[in-house]
Amino acid sequence: MSNATTTPITTRTWVAFGSNGALGAIHETTGGFYYKLLSDDDYRGVFPTLDAAKGALMGAMPSGSERPEFKEH
Known about the structure:
The protein is of the alpha+beta class. It has a domain at 20-67. The chain is built from one helix and five strands; from the N terminus they run ββββαβ. The longest helix has 11 residues, at 50-60. It is globular, with a radius of gyration of 13 Å. The termini are far apart. Mean pLDDT is 89; it is low at 1-5.
């Protein structure tokens, strides 16, 4: 019997850039869209669409932050 866990395969990645550089990333996987800020140790939740993940990433940024530019990487 195996203890291996199944890791979703990343198909595409978008990096969120602010005025001071990269802030975080969104990864599209076989299970949905995951995001994390650079300061995060792990990914935050799974979202059904890219727009939902972008909104969640922006919501996790400090109040008053400018909207980041998302570039597919």
